[in-house]
Amino acid sequence: MPKIQFHIIIPGFLVSLLLAGACSDLSEYDSEQVRSTLNDSLITSTESWDVQMTLMQQEQARISIEGSYAISYQSNERSETHIDGPVYVQLFDTTGAVETEAWSKKAIYLENKSEFELYDSVRVLTNTDRELYSDFLVWSQKTDRITSPRFVTIVTPTDSISGRGFDGLTDLSSYTIDEPRGRLIVD
Question: pTM of the entire structure?
Answer without folding.
Answer: 0.70
